[in-house]
Design goal:
It is a single chain. By secondary structure, the chain is of the alpha+beta class. It has a single domain, classed as Fumarylacetoacetase-like, C-terminal domain (Fumarylacetoacetate hydrolase, domain 2, Alpha-Beta Complex), CATH 3.90.850. The protein is 24% helix and 26% strand. It is built from 6 helices and 13 strands. Strands 1, 2, 3, 5, 6, 7, 10 and 11 form an 8-stranded mixed β-sheet that branches. A hairpin with a 4-residue loop joins strand 8 and strand 9. Helix 1 crosses helix 2.
Length: 262
């Protein structure tokens, strides 16, 4: 079990990697994590270094493609830091990104908070707390050179590979009447590859993923708060990209979102 000082040391090391664009093989042995609770504690310390209130949450490894990418067998929650959330059409630097992939996602914005409680939230309760749905693109990255080998706890501590995130406009259709599992989506590189997917890639249904997140946060004493965004997971197998490309994410009736990579 890591001490308070060791947990802070782990968070400081990971934040230094974020701030200076560098990576480590893994957390050193003396900072080995015992469980998810410790990992989320370290993640919270990364949030504390942000200059603005938390923008929201992401869910990683919600489908076979994402789980293969990270070499895990279950979803993970991470934080969306406000300074890394961009508007539709933004220009975003890949920097020295190791992953160099994009994900096309359905994002939810909460209209009311879901605080921790003893009983799990039902899907109906969680969906009732949603205010709007948005198309989105996530550009994940990692602070580990060996991210496929470090395991779930270290990935969570590293904010579940969160990095840049592009949020589209709220959908104008009645999204509650749509079958989000059957929703066809695609990501397309301008003048290049298109990768097709669907809402079913996200734990079978993005609404299931959102409910999972609400209960994962509740289990560890965290609140899914009013106004926060939830990136529910990639509807496509993560698509390799490079600087100089323009990417379109198309979520059919939910709208489109674009990003220019430099």
């Amino acid at each position: 079990m890591l001490t308070e000082s060791q947990r802070q040391q782990a968070a400081d090391l990971l934040w230094d990697c974020w701030a200076h664009g560098r990576r480590i093989a893994q957390l050193p042995p003396e900072l080995a994590l015992a469980d998810r609770a410790q990992a989320y504690d370290i993640q919270a310390r990364l949030e504390a270094r942000s200059f603005a209130p938390l923008a929201g949450w992401k869910i990683g490894a919600t489908g076979p493609g994402g789980q293969r990418l990270l070499n895990v067998d279950a979803p993970l929650a991470g934080r969306l830091l406000a300074e890394r959330v961009h508007r539709n059409g933004a220009t975003v630097s890949l920097g020295n990104s190791l992953m160099k992939v994009i994900e096309v996602e359905i994002a939810f914005r909460m209209r009311k908070s879901l605080p921790p409680r003893d009983t799990p939230y039902s899907r109906e309760e969680v969906l009732d707390a949603v205010g709007s749905v948005h198309p989105a693109i996530e550009i994940p990255d990692t602070r580990y050179d060996n991210f496929k080998q470090v395991g779930a706890a270290q990935l969570i501590a590293d904010n579940t590979c969160a990095d840049q995130f592009v949020l589209g406009a709220p959908a104008t259709v009645d999204w509650r009447s749509l079958d989000l599992a059957a929703l066809k989506t695609f990501g397309r590189i301008d003048g290049g590859e298109q990768r097709d997917g669907s809402g079913a890639e996200v734990l079978g249904d993005p609404r299931i993923a959102l409910t999972w997140l609400a209960n994962e946060l509740s289990r560890y004493g965290m609140t899914l708060a009013e106004g926060q965004i939830v990136a529910s997971g990639s509807t496509i197998v993560p698509m390799p990209v490079r600087a100089g490309q323009r990417i379109l994410g198309d979520l059919g009736p939910l709208g489109t979102v674009e990003v220019e990579l430099t």
